[in-house]
TrEMBL record:
Gene3D superfamilies with a match to the protein in the record: Isochorismatase-like (3.40.50.850)
Domain Isochorismatase-like: 3-143
Family annotation (InterPro entries): Isochorismatase-like_dom, Isochorismatase-like_hydrls, Isochorismatase-like_sf
Alphabetical keyword list: Hydrolase
Family assignment from sequence similarity: Belongs to the isochorismatase family.
Pfam families noted in UniProt: Isochorismatase
Name of this chain's protein: Isochorismatase family protein
Superkingdom: Bacteria
PANTHER family, A to Z: ISOCHORISMATASE-LIKE DOMAIN-CONTAINING PROTEIN (PTHR43540:SF6), PEROXYUREIDOACRYLATE/UREIDOACRYLATE AMIDOHYDROLASE-RELATED (PTHR43540)
SUPFAM superfamilies hit by this protein: Isochorismatase-like hydrolases
Length: 180
C-alpha cells in the first residue's frame, strides 16, 4: 500500500514566504491519494524553545489551514526525521504501507532526513521535489545560485535509493494507476 507523508506544513513555516505553488501541488497530490482511499499522514514539528516559530504552544506550530482538514493522521516529531521517537513506523505498519511519498517542508532537513530514514527502514520512497519547499535560500548557505530543492532532489536521485519526481512526472507515473 502507498501512503502520502505531508511534512511540517505549519503556520510557522508556510507564513514565512510565498509557498502558493508548493501548497497547490501538495493539495493536488493529497486529493489524488484521497480519491484512491490511500492514507494521508501529516507530520507536525514541535519545538520546546519559546522563540521558535514552531514552539509547541504557539499558533506557528499549528497545521496550515489550507491543508489541515485533509489529514487522516497527525503525528508529532521533534527532530528532522519523521521516524525518530514518533509513532510513524507503527502507523505505517498497521496500515500495511510499503511505499511512502514525501511532500512538505523544509526540503533539505525534514523532507530529506525522512526520505533517507524511510529507505533505511525498507520502504520504497518517492520524493516529489517540487511539492516540497524551504524557508532557506542560497544566501542562508552562502552558496550563490543554489537551488535547494533541485540540489536535494539530485542528491537523492543519484543515490539510487530514493525515487525523485517532479509533480508532472508523478502524474504520469502514478495518477493513472487504478490503485495508488
Amino acid at each position: 500500500m502507498k501512503a502520502l507523508l505531508v511534512i511540517d506544513v505549519q503556520n510557522g513555516i508556510v507564513n514565512y514566504g510565498d509557498f502558493k505553488e508548493e501548497l497547490s501541488l501538495i493539495e493536488n497530490i493529497i486529493i489524488d491519494f484521497k480519491d484512491r482511499n490511500s492514507p494521508v499522514i501529516f507530520m507536525r514539528h514541535l519545538d520546546d524553545a519559546e522563540e521558535s516559530p514552531l514552539y509547541k504552544h504557539s499558533v506557528g506550530s499549528e497545521l496550515h489551514s489550507s491543508l489541515k482538514d485533509y489529514a487522516d493522521y497527525v503525528l508529532e516529531k521533534q527532530t528532522p526525521s519523521s521516524f525518530f521517537n514518533t509513532g510513524l513506523s507503527i502507523t505505517l505498519e498497521k496500515l500495511g504501507v510499503n511505499h511512502l511519498f514525501i511532500t512538505g517542508f523544509n526540503t533539505e532537513f525534514c523532507c530529506m532526513f525522512t526520505a533517507i530514514s524511510a529507505f533505511d527502514r525498507g520502504y520504497k520512497v518517492t520524493f516529489i521535489e517540487n511539492a516540497t519547499g524551504t524557508v532557506n535560500t542560497d544566501e542562508t548557505y552562502e552558496m550563490p545560485g543554489l537551488d535547494i530543492k533541485d540540489f536535494v532532489g539530485t542528491v537523492l536521485h543519484w543515490s539510487d535509493a530514493v525515487e525523485v519526481l517532479d509533480y508532472e512526472e508523478y502524474i504520469n507515473e502514478y495518477k493513472i494507476e487504478k490503485n495508488i
